[in-house]
Structure formats: structure tokens, C-alpha cells
């Protein structure tokens, strides 16, 4: 096999999402394409999800080409007029200004208002709401939108959208959901998109988000006539991807061991952006070693001080490389070749 390579286990993806689908019975499941828009993954996901969340005209065209005819929700700050003209099931409106531009177009559209509510998101790895962020609207701006929507029929407000944080576990997500639902009900809105952000642990790849508890909790919270929807990305696709490469050089510098592998964070930027060691398969334990890529920057660290014995020529398999990995990386920095892409589907 040509290395470095991204290797996707499509059977594992299908099994994982089928289990989520079962656990989330009664709740609509959209996949946030920005986590990994690889067409092979989208095609496996398509029959198992209710739709896809896209965050740009580019993603929209890409997802539509890969999985034609599926319901799409268009989110993201800074939508252009061209994007606001998209024919999608839902537009997630981010500001009163955006809504004014949409209304001025005079065309039919179904929207959710994206709320940034002051709800507790302690322990989150990324907070998108609960304070001054460019995402969504505070209650004052939501009221302004509801006023703008009066006396016109082209744009229909179906409900509320809230993607407030990433990295929360199921009980924390349920607490957040309760707050969002209370707020939606106070406005008489019955379709609620609770966003994504379900926790994954790069330190403990086997510790998975508790979808059974989350699904059961959401079914208990839902009132008759309400539609609940979630739009996870990372927690869906992260586990099905591995980044596989080979050791080029092993060296000791001022007492510390380093393994230099082919490729690096220009292929798999996740450890650099999240500040973690990318988990990897350890076959032979050994003295702690730092695994770096080929880039001429000290930030090109894939995993630091890992207790594994490596020699030139050894294959290194990084796990949890199926989300926010290849597609968020700076591919052409230093102009090394791109990795190969392989897909396995055993059943
Ligand atoms: C990024 C994003 C998601 C997906 O988040 P994950 O952490 O990948 O689950 C969902 N909704 C919105 C609005 C987003 O910006």
C-alpha cells in the first residue's frame, strides 16, 4: 500500500451510525458535512441519516452531487446572497441582517433562527454560544427577527437552531437541550435543531458518547407536535478513519527520542489544532518517543512522548482520523505529495 494513506473503514462507519440511528429513534439525525465531506462516506451515511447540514455553497454543491435529493440544511455565519438563494429544506438564519437580505429577495424559504443562548456549557472543548461569539443571535435579535417576519408570507420560520458547544457528554447535552427547549417553547416554536458537538475522546478512543442515554433523554423531553433534530459531525465519522504512514528516521536530540514519519500535520492537522497526541496503534511498547512529520516547523507533532518502539520502515497507524482531519489540513505547505485514500467495505 502506498503510504501515507487515509484508510476508511466504511463497514465500521455503517455499523456505528446504524447504532446511533437506533438510539436516536424519534429524533431526526442530520450529518454535519464539514466534519468530513468525503463522497464515499456521504454515500454510506445517506440511507442512515435524515439529511445533511452544509455550511457553504461549496459544501452544498458537493453534497448534492454525492448524494442527490437528500434534505439539506444550510448553516454558517456570513452567508452570501448567492448562498441565501439556495434551494434547501432549511436555512439557519444567523442575524437580523441576514434575514433582511433573505426577505428582500421575496422568495419562499423555510428557516430556523439560530440562537446563542446564555446556557451553561462548562466542560465544553469549544463554546459557540453562551457569550459574545459570532454564531447565532441573542434573544434580543431573535425577537427582532420574529418582528421582521410578521406580515409577510414568503419566509416561514419553522423553529429554532442551537449549536452551543462541542465536547459535552450526554447528561450535559440533555441539560443544554432542556434550556433550549424551554426557550423555543416560550416563543411558540416547535421545530428545534439541537446541533452537534457530541463528545469524543482522543485520549480514550474507546470511550464513546452515550447515544442511548441522549436519545432516551430527548424522547422524554419532546412534547407532542415537536420535531427534534441533531446534526453531529465529529462523533459520526471520527472513528472510521485512520492515517497510516511509515517511519523515515529515528533520532535522539538532547536526550529525547524522535521518529520522523512520512507526511505530517499538513495531512492530519487535528493534533495541532486540538493540542493532543493523535491516538495510534501500539504494537511494541518502548521508551517514550515523539512522532513528528516532515514539515520544517516545531508544530508538526502528531503525537508526543508515546511509549512505543519505532524503527525506520515501521508502519504507524493513527486512529480517530475520520473527522476534521484531511479536510482541515494545510495540504500544500512544503509541497509534499498528498496521501493515498483507501476504502474498505467488508460486508
Ligand atoms: C460544526 C457544526 C456542527 C457539527 O459539530 P460536531 O462537533 O462535528 O458534531 C453542527 N452544527 C453546526 C452549526 C456546526 O457549526
Please supply descriptive tags for the structure shown above.
347 residues; 10 helices; 2 domains; 17 strands; alpha/beta; 27% helix; 7-stranded mixed sheet; TIM Barrel; binds pyridoxal-5'-phosphate; elongated; Lyase, Ornithine Decarboxylase, Chain A, domain 1; 8-stranded parallel barrel
Polypeptide structure, described:
This protein has two domains: about 10-235, Alanine racemase (TIM Barrel, Alpha-Beta Barrel); about 240-345, Lyase, Ornithine Decarboxylase, Chain A, domain 1, CATH 2.40.37. The chain is built from ten helices and 17 strands. With about 350 residues, the chain is an alpha/beta fold. Strands 2-3-4-5-6-8-10-11 form an eight-stranded parallel barrel, surrounded by four helices. Strands 1, 12, 13, 14, 15, 16 and 17 form a seven-stranded mixed beta sheet that branches. Strand 4, helix 4 (about 80-85) and strand 5 (about 90-95) form a beta-alpha-beta unit. Helix content is about 25%, strand content about 25%. Pyridoxal-5'-phosphate binds near residues 35, 53, 75, 232 and 234.
- Profile the largest sheet: 8 strands, parallel, barrel
The outline comes out as elongated
What hetero molecules are in the model? Answer: pyridoxal-5'-phosphate
Classify the secondary structure makeup into a structural class: alpha/beta
